[in-house]
Amino acid sequence: MLRCLASLFLIAAATAFPAAAQSVRIKDLVEVDGVRSNDLVGYGLVVGLNGTGDGLRNSPFTEEIMTNILERLGVNVTGEQFRPRNVAAVLVTGRLPPFARTGGQVDVTVSAIGDAKSLLGGTLIMTPLNAADGQIYAVAQGTVIAGGAEAEGEAARVVQGVPTSGVIPSGARVEREVPFDFANLSSLRLALREPDFTTAARIEDVINRSLGRRAAVMMDAGTIQVNLQNTGASSPARAVVAIENLAVEPQRRARVVVDQRSGTIVMGADVRISRVAVSQGNLTLRIEEAPLAIQPNPFADGETVVVPRTGAAIEEEPGIGLAEVPSGTSLSEVIAGLNALGVSPRDMIDILKSIKAAGALHADFVVM
């Protein structure tokens, strides 16, 4: 077996990144159970568009909501026919943050659901926003800031970005609070964003060392329970303040993430490869059709005959010869070696897939 690739891997080891983890705050690793946001959604109407709204024949729901709004405002439109092009039906979405109080403001996103061409310059009319329980928690209204632009002439139209979607900063006002008695909790549950037994055990140890008591108990790989009575804090909020800024060195599963569209490869420092041999080359198959027409002699009886003629060839481009990767080599060394040989990112992804299929790549392989 050729050893050229393996030698390149050993040279690249000097520049490989270290496997040591860095300390991370507990607040960046966990979520406090019960402290969460809630999604909101509503159905409303954007007005004031410059002829870029819904076509009411194609979007009858726009006419229906416009009629309902005008009737609530005391305008009788029974039997009237509406054909304006300056209104658009939209879905309004937002997120109610934890501990949001009545009168607070949140951002909302406005998206057209009909055949409107643009929401530029439009104004969202008062729209109630509901949560999953069907209750109204906020009301949205304001000028839509669309994220695109368009220009149109007699025979051409150009669009940049997505003008049918926009945002309203602080466009919704909170009208109802989510009931949550955080101040009277007797214990807290910390939920890891990425469950891991080692990380959970380290968080438990750090909390107990910092508070000097047996306050934290690891329940499983994703949960640490904190007994507030053993923390010595005056309130649950004070206990969270004392815990969330403690530093921990997290442990994560080795993972390789590849994006086939852009050829991007992202890997963790703990990825390892067992002893494996690699050989890679590209085959190009070419088939060309060049039919030949045969005609009869002048003034002779006969018909023109087309004779098929096909040319087929297989070309093999230079690739990586049979090379051996030593056991325990890190993936960063493999990537450095492949880069030194001029392997393209897409070929590199194919090689990594094959190494994973052979059982020599010890990591989660995620393809996007």
UniProtKB/TrEMBL annotation:
<comment type="function">
    <text>Assembles around the rod to form the L-ring and probably protects the motor/basal body from shearing forces during rotation.</text>
</comment>
<dbReference type="GO" id="GO:0009428">
    <property type="term" value="C:bacterial-type flagellum basal body, distal rod, P ring"/>
</dbReference>
<protein>
    <recommendedName>
        <fullName>Flagellar P-ring protein</fullName>
    </recommendedName>
</protein>
<feature type="signal peptide">
    <location>
        <begin position="1"/>
        <end position="21"/>
    </location>
</feature>
<keyword id="KW-0574">Periplasm</keyword>
<dbReference type="GO" id="GO:0071973">
    <property type="term" value="P:bacterial-type flagellum-dependent cell motility"/>
</dbReference>
<keyword id="KW-0966">Cell projection</keyword>
<comment type="similarity">
    <text>Belongs to the FlgI family.</text>
</comment>
<keyword id="KW-0282">Flagellum</keyword>
<comment type="subunit">
    <text>The basal body constitutes a major portion of the flagellar organelle and consists of four rings (L,P,S, and M) mounted on a central rod.</text>
</comment>
<keyword id="KW-0969">Cilium</keyword>
<keyword id="KW-0975">Bacterial flagellum</keyword>
<dbReference type="InterPro" id="IPR001782">
    <property type="entry name" value="Flag_FlgI"/>
</dbReference>
<dbReference type="Pfam" id="PF02119">
    <property type="entry name" value="FlgI"/>
</dbReference>
<dbReference type="GO" id="GO:0005198">
    <property type="term" value="F:structural molecule activity"/>
</dbReference>
<keyword id="KW-0732">Signal</keyword>
<dbReference type="GO" id="GO:0030288">
    <property type="term" value="C:outer membrane-bounded periplasmic space"/>
</dbReference>
